Amino acid sequence: MEQKIINIGMIQRSYSDDVEYNRRQNASAIKRLASEGANLVVLSELHDSLYFCQYEDVDNFKFACAISDFIDFYSEIAGNNKIVLVTSAFEKRAPGLYHNTSVVFESDGSVAGKYRKMHIPDDPGFYEKFYFTPGDLGFEPIPTSLGKIGVLVCWDQWYPEAARIMTLKGAELLIYPTAIGWNPDDAADEKIRQRDSWITIQRAHAIANGLPVVSVNRCGFEKDLSCQSSGIDFWGSSFVAGPQGEILYMCPENSPEEVIVKIDKERTKNVRHWWPFLRDRRIEHYEELKYRYLE
Hints:
Elements: E1 5-12, H1 19-35, E2 40-42, H2 67-81, E3 84-94, E4 97-105, E5 111-116, E6 122-123, E7 126-127, E8 142-144, E9 147-151, H3 160-168, E10 173-177, E11 181-182, H4 188-209, E12 213-216, E13 219-222, E14 232-235, E15 239-241, E16 247-250, E17 257-264, H5 265-274
Parallel strand pairs: 1-2, 2-3, 9-10, 10-12
Antiparallel strand pairs: 1-17, 3-4, 4-5, 6-7, 8-9, 11-14, 12-15, 13-14, 15-16
């Protein structure tokens, strides 16, 4: 029988440069949420370590791991707690070839699927092109016992095309592990605009596709060890939006939180009946979308 209600556990916290410590903390948080009824748990982006992409340094490749080692650790946690688990890894695929990879585990500990981040930023404080090769697995929803989930990662969340393709391929839920924050030197009004834009674009994906969206961010200040900038204040604010973009829950900006949020898959079906956006798409007139720019 299809499960109509999903209890989504979100883990919003800060991280250190101690990978083993971070993993132990994540394991404890997952266990607590599972004991409280979560059947799907989502971690933030690159949760094994600090957000090392603030500057370019080959020494930071030490945070990368063989995906088999990562899987061994988190598969046991998913299986022991009988939850579907969405994780994020710095994948060492081969020397000189690395990905920002989300691994989804089934509730028996098996790997349900992987997604490699497709859109890679290269901006002050977010020099990810130095570290990550763009994903080569495409936009493919991952089948789980809770339904098909469309996992995308951080910078992917700004692109409506990614959310739409996941939806057209049958995703029932969009999930965004994230690491995003402010430069502490930004003016207060600029900080508000940035965070509001981040929330708004993802709520728009929920509305346009008639699907719930789960976005899990880290929180806390991380220093730029190169001293080229003032670091990043990760703004937390992890949230779940319903299929009409309604905020079902939002975590605080400046502190860690573990929380369970319920979503009702039946409501998603009803919203799509009320607002049949997929029905009214004029697909025969969208050919121009394949171009980067139209002169």
